[in-house]
Design brief:
The complex is a heterodimer of chains A (about 375) and B (about 240). By secondary structure, chain A is α+β, with helices and mostly antiparallel strands. Chain A is built from eleven helices and twelve strands. In chain A, the strands form two sheets. In chain A, strands 3-4-9-6-8-7 form a six-stranded mixed β-barrel. Chain B has one domain: Rossmann fold (3-Layer(aba) Sandwich), CATH 3.40.50.300. The chains are: A alpha+beta (about 375), B alpha/beta (about 240). Bound molecules: adenosine-5'-triphosphate (ATP) and magnesium ion (MG).
Chain lengths: ~375, ~240
Amino acid sequence: MFMKMLVSSLIRRRSRMLAALCAIAIGATVLLGMAAISYDIPRQMGREFRSYGANMVLVASGEDALLKLEDSDRAAEVIPEKSLVGMTPYRYEIVRINMQGYTAAGTDFDQARRTSPYWNVSGAWPKEENDILIGSDIAEFTRLAPGSAINITGRASDGARFRRDMTVSGIVRTGSVEDEFIFMRLDTLDALMGNSGVAEVVEVSIAADEDELNALAAAISNHAPGVSPRLVKRVTQSETTVLSKLQSLVFLVSLIVLVLTMICVATTMMTVVMERRKEIGLKKAIGADNRSIAAEFLGEGMLLGVMGGILGTVLGYFFAQAVSMNVFGRGVILDWRLMPATVLVSVAVTVAACLWPVKRAADVEPALVLRGE
Amino acid sequence: MNILELKNVSMIYGQVKALYDVSLSVEQGEWLAIMGPSGSGKTTMMNIIGCMDRPTNGSVILDGEELSRLSPAELTAIRRDKIGLIFQQFHLISYLTALENVMVAQYYHSMIDEGEALLAMERVGLKERAKHLPRQLSGGEQQRVCIARALINYPRLILADEPTGNLDETNEHIVMEILRKLHNGGSTIIVVTHDPEVAVEADRTVFLEHGRISNVVRKNDVPDAVKAKDMQLSSAR
Ligand SMILES: Nc1ncnc2c1ncn2[C@@H]1O[C@H](COP(=O)(O)OP(=O)(O)OP(=O)(O)O)[C@@H](O)[C@H]1O
Ligand SMILES: [Mg+2]
C-alpha cells in the first residue's frame, strides 16, 4: 500500500513531480558532468599542456657539441614507460637548395608529432625516405608547395659532395625558428652525411609534475653521464597551478549547483506539502500518525531522488562529453564509480531538501478537514 | 451505557466562544443529530468529539477514556480505532482509486485486505466503480466511497458533518438509507445537518446556538409538521 500510494501520487500528479524531477535531474546532470570533467581534467589538461612542447631536453654534457644517441637511449631507460609521451632526436646540418643554404633537421616524425603536437602541417607528414617537410618561411620564399620536387645538395661529414632528389610532402608552421628549417627523416640525413648515431638535442615530453621531473633529471644525469637533461621550466610550473585552480573552480561550481538543486527541491516539496494540506489532514483524521506521513513524503523524495539521479547520470554523461568535446576537443573518460555516487548524492540532497517540508507536513492539523477552508 | 460524555466543554478562539459550557451524553447505539445556524459551533463540536481538537475547558470521555489526558499520538490512535468520519466535501485522495481510498484507512489502521474493502464497496453499492478515480465519480458516489472508508475499520462512533450537504435529493436518500441501516445494526451515529429531513431520522436532535445547547428534541417529540412531511415522503417512496 505504501508503495502504491507513493507511485500513484507520483504518477497521477505528474506536473508537480515533473518539476521536482527536472530540478534533481538537472542538478545531477551538472554534478556528474562537472565531476567527470574535473576527474578527467588532469589527463585532458596534462595533454593540453604537453602540446606546448617538450618539458625536458637532453643535450650532450661537458664540451661535446653532439649527443650520442646511445647515451640518450640510456637516459630513456630511467623514464617510466607509461609517463613517457615522446622522445624526439634532432640532428642539424647545412644543405643547399638551388645554391641557397638552409638548416636541415633530421628527426623521427612519429615522435615529433608527440613532442610537438602544436606543429601545423599543411599537406602530409613525410612517409617515404625522400619526403621532406619545409618550414613555412622557406615555402614562402621559394614558392614550393606540397608535391614539389626539389634537389638537395651539400657536403657529407668526410667532405664529399652529395646530391639527392626529394619531394616536399608538407609545409610546417610553428610560429618559431622551425619555420626556417627543412625536416627529413633522421636516417635519410644520416645517409646523406655518411655517419649516424648523433644528434644536437633530444626533446622529451614526460607526463609528470615538477617534482617528478626534477627527480627524473637527477636520475638521468646519474644513469647516463654523457647526457645533460634540462627542464623546460615555465610550462611545467604553470601546468600544476592552472590545474589546481581549474579543479577548485569546478568544485565551487558543483557546490553551487548542489545548493541550487536543494533550494529548488525544497521549494517544490514545500509547495507540494501546501497543496496537499487537505490530504495530509485527511490522512491524519483517519488515523495516520506523524511517522507514516513523514515516511510517505520522504519516500516520495527518495523515489524522486533515485529517478532524478539516474536520469541525471545518463544526461550528465552526454553533458560531460559535449563540454569536453567543445573545450578540449576530445571525449571524456568517465570513471564508472561516479555514476552510483551521483545517484547517491541526488538522493541525499533530495532527502535533505525534504526534511523541512516533511516537518511542516507532520505539523498539519487534522481538524482542518472538517473546516471547509 | 454512554459511549460519549461532554462535561462543561468550552472552545474559545481569542474572543470567539465557538462552544461554551456544553454538556452532553450520547448512548451506545444512539443516533444523534446536531442542528443550528451557521457559526453556532457544530463543526467545532465534531472536531472535539472526533479527537481532532482539544477543548479549551471541560472534559470529554469517549468510550471510557478521558481525552484531555491523552497525548497527540494517543488521540491519533483513538481516531484510527474508534471513529469513522464522513465529510461534506468527501475528502477522497484524488490520485487513488475508490477502492484504494478505502484501503488507505485499512493501511493506517492495521493491514490492507482488498477483499474486505471490495465488500465495503459492495455494501454502499459501488462494487463496479471500485477501480475509478474520485473525479470519475459523481458527488453521491464519492460520498458513498467516503462512507465505505469510514466504516471499514468497524468504528464505535460514526461522525458525519453535513453528509448530505453537497448532494441532490436522490443521493441524499441513498446516503440516509445507508445511515439508517448502520443505525439498525447498532452503530452510534452523530450527524451534523441543516436539513430537518435528515434530523428527523435521529433518535435525538440537539440544537446549538452561539456555542450553547439551546434545545433538545427526542424523536417522538418532533413537531407534527416535520413528522407529517416525513410521512408524505416515505409513502411517496
Ligand atoms: N480555528 C478557528 N479560529 C478562530 N475562530 C474559529 C476557528 N474555528 C472556528 N471558529 C469560529 O467558531 C465559531 C463556530 O464555528 P463552527 O465551524 O463550529 O460553526 P458551524 O456551526 O460548523 O458553522 P457552519 O454551519 O457554517 O459549518 C465561528 O464563529 C467560527 O468563526
Ligand atoms: Mg460546520
